[in-house]
Amino acid sequence: xxxxxxxxxxxxxxxxxxxxxxxxxxxxxxxxxxxxxxxxxxxxxxxxxxxxxxxxxxxxxxxxxxxxxxxxxxxxxxxxxxxxxxxxxxxxxxxxxxxxxxxxxxxxxxxxxxxxxxxxxxxxxxxxxxxxxxxxxxxxxxxxxxxxxxxxxxxxxxxxxxxxxxxxxxxxxxxxxxxxxxxxxxxxxxxxxxxxxxxxxxxxxxxxxxxxxxxxxxxxxxxxxxxxxxxxxxxxxxxxxxxxxxxxxxxxxxxxxxxxxxxxxxxxxxxxxxxxxxxxxxxxxxxxxxxxxxxxxxxxxxxxxxxxxxxxxxxxxxxxxxxxxxxxxxxxxxxxxxxxxxxxxxxxxxxxxxxxxxxxxxxxxxxxxxxxxxxxxxxxxxxxxxx
Length: 387
Hints:
387 residues; alpha+beta; NADH Oxidase; 2 domains; four-stranded antiparallel beta sheet
C-alpha cells in the first residue's frame, strides 16, 4: 500500500493497528513527525515574526505571505532603517508551470503586502514603488520607510493565521455583504475582484478546473516542474524550508498521519491524488470562487498589484473566519499554451465566466468556511532571504 491508496480510502484502521507496532513504522513516525508536524526550524518563522521592531521584523512578516507551491520567490535588501528592496529570485521559478512569471510576481506582491502591514504596525509610513528601475528587472519593489503613526490592524494580526486551506469547506454560503466588502479592498484602479457565486457558474468553473488539472498532470514537463516542489519527509522540509507538504493538503489528522507512515508517493500517484481532490473536495465544497482581474495579466506591475490585493483579501478572510485556496490550474494551462505558440484552450470559457469585458483573469481562488483549520507551511527565516 502506498500513500495514494490511503488518501483514497478511509477504512484502514485495522491495518494500521496491526502494523503500528513494527520498528519500521515507529521509525517513520519519528522521522516524518507524525505527531508533531509543526515543530522544527522550518516553522520557527511563524512563531518569531513579531519579535523584531525594525526592518528585520518587516521582512519576517513578508516571508509568511502566500506564494505559488510555497516557492517563496523573494530576496530582500535592507537600506539601513530607511528602506527595503524586494527582488525576485530566479532560482525559484516554476518553469513550464509559470512560463511568464505570473504566479511568481503574484507571490512577490503578497509578500510586499505583508511587509507594508508590518511596517505600519512598527510606526512607519511605507512608500512603495513597483518596478522602480528598468535596468534591474529582478528589483520588483522599493519601499521607503519614513516615520508615521503606528497602525496595527486585524489584517496585520491575521498574518500568522493565514494559510492556504486545501481541505473541505462547509456548505454554509458566504454572505453577500462579506463578498462585497472583500471586493472593495482593491487599492489600485488597474486591479479588481469579481465573484462566482451562482450554482450554474460555479459548476462550470469547477468543471473547467478539473479539466485543467488533468491537462497539467498529462503534460510531462508541467507535472515534473510542479512535483519538484513537493517535500516528502521531515528531513527534506528542514533542509529546504519551502514547498508543499502532506500537512498542507487539508486531510484529516488521522489520514495525514497514516500517509506519513507509508512510502512516499510517486509523481504519478501525487498527480492522481491532486486531480481527485480537485474533483471531490476543492470544487465540490467551494462556497464561492474569486477572480483577480486586470487588463494585462502578463504585465509585471499588474501581477504585483494583483498579488497585493490577493494577500489583502486572504488576510481579511482569515480575520473573518473564512478559508481561501489558490487554484490557478486554468491560467497555468493557458500560459503554457501561449508559451508553446498555441491558442489557449480554456481562455474563452474562462472569460465567459468572468463576465468582465476588457479585463482578464490574473488569479483564481475558492472561498468558504473551513471544516478544519489550515496547517503551517515551512518557511525560510529572515537570515536566508537577505542579500
